[in-house]
Design a protein that fits this description.
The protein has 191 residues and is of the alpha/beta class. It has 2 domains: 4-123, 5'-nuclease (Rossmann fold, 3-Layer(aba) Sandwich), CATH 3.40.50.1010; 133-190, Nucleic acid-binding proteins (OB fold (Dihydrolipoamide Acetyltransferase, E2P)). 38% of the residues lie in helices and 26% in strands. It is built from 7 helices and 10 strands. It has helices at 4-9, 11-18, 29-39, 44-62, 81-92, 101-109, 117-123, and strands spanning 24-28, 67-71, 96-98, 114-116, 133-137, 140-141, 148-151, 157-160, 170-181, 184-190. The protein has a 6-stranded mixed beta sheet with strand order 5-9-10-8-7-6, with no helix packed on it. Strands 1-2 form a two-stranded parallel ribbon. Strands 3-4 form a two-stranded parallel ribbon. Strand 9 and strand 10 (184-190) form a beta hairpin. Helix 3 (29-39) crosses helix 4. The protein is elongated, with a radius of gyration of 20 Å. The chain starts with a helix and ends with a strand.
Length: 191
């Protein structure tokens, strides 16, 4: 079962083209209705997100590597979309694909398997160990005095000591520590 957030996010299409997914991607009609509601929003940013989601759905339906189906199955006694998804997943004994942290936790508490695309993305990022070298452009000051911050291509934050004065420069740095959090991976390094 796909939720609204994973469709709008768009990475589900990229994942489906790789052949890693098997089975059927099931989109409840109430998720489609929520996407349409978002696409019809007066707020331009929200409207663009909804339209993106509808475009991702169209691309999924055209993808040869995976079967995508819209289903009219509903849980009429439940009103809220996330609650409907969890109830439907329990009824069908199938996982929910999402990027929504709160839906993820609520579903897990109720015994529903969750496939979180953010967790997948974090798990396939390159691993760095203390002592390894990497190259990063310092783009902003860090929280602590003297720190500079840059990002790897995969979005991983790199905090470099003694690099505050080196803004806009690309440095070869040595990893000193790697911190894994629920928000992602953070690397600490020195020039």
């Amino acid at each position: 079962l796909l939720d609204t957030s994973v469709i709008i996010d768009g990475r589900i299409h990229d994942i489906s083209t790789t052949g890693f997914l098997r089975g059927v991607l099931l989109i409840p009609s109430f998720v489609l209705q929520e996407l349409q509601y978002i696409a019809d929003s007066a707020d331009p940013m929200r409207r663009n997100r909804g339209r993106r989601g509808l475009e991702v759905l169209r691309m999924l339906q055209e993808e040869a590597n995976i079967v995508t189906r819209i289903t009219d199955m509903d849980v009429s006694e439940v009103r809220e979309v996330d609650s409907k998804l969890v109830s439907l997943a329990r009824h069908l004994h199938c996982p929910i694909m999402t990027t929504d942290y709160n839906l993820n936790r609520v579903a897990e508490i109720q015994g529903v398997t969750v496939l979180n695309v953010n967790d997948l993305a974090n798990s396939v990022k390159a691993a760095y160990l203390p002592g390894e070298e990497l190259r990063v452009k310092i783009i902003q000051e860090g929280r602590e005095s003297g720190q500079g911050v840059g990002y790897l291509e995969d979005g991983t934050m790199v905090v470099v000591e003694d690099a505050q004065r080196l803004l806009e420069r690309t440095l070869d740095v040595t990893v000193t520590k790697v911190l894994q959090t629920s928000a992602g991976r953070m690397i600490f390094a020195k020039p």
